[in-house]
């Protein structure tokens, strides 16, 4: 009971301090109070950078480096075409790189909310032959990707939507 009161009091105090003087809050960055608590904006931006760097390294063919630097190998992914485990995802990405060595990647949007990051992109596997709209969602803890979701939609020929794919 005392611990619960202490934790609630600490949360309330940090929330109050964040509104009065964001520099007091221990994340050492600009903070933002929300209904669900305090978000450290600097950490949110770092998480976004982590996700973007990871994808750019992967598409650039530096898959081992990307995994070593950014993936918690005990984490999980939810790609329906790859067996469970980050090791299986690593091998799947290496296979895709061998099949499509000259991929290009254009980020359309990068959104972050605390430790969840979503990257909407145009992935060009083979120019004018295999292009995709992709969305990758990452859960990041301590600078490492601990969970990952991805989905894609092939861009095939002309679209009936005059707004285009992007």
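^ structure tokens above, recovered residues below v
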């Amino acid at each position: 009971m005392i611990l619960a009161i202490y934790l609630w009091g600490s949360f309330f105090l940090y929330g109050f301090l964040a509104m009065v003087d964001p520099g007091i809050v221990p994340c050492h960055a600009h903070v933002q109070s929300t209904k669900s608590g305090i978000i450290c904006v600097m950490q949110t931006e770092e998480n976004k950078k982590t996700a973007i760097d990871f994808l750019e390294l992967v598409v650039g063919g530096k898959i081992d480096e990307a995994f070593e630097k950014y993936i918690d190998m005990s984490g999980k992914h939810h790609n329906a075409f790859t067996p469970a485990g980050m090791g299986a995802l690593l091998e799947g990405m290496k296979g895709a790189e061998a099949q499509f060595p000259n991929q290009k990647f254009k980020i359309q949007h990068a959104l972050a909310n605390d430790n969840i990051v979503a990257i909407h992109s145009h992935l060009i596997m083979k120019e004018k032959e295999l292009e995709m709209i992709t969305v990758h969602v990452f859960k990041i803890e301590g600078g490492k990707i601990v969970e990952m979701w991805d989905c894609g939609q092939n861009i095939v020929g002309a679209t009936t939507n005059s707004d285009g794919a992007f």
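Residues 1-35 form one domain.
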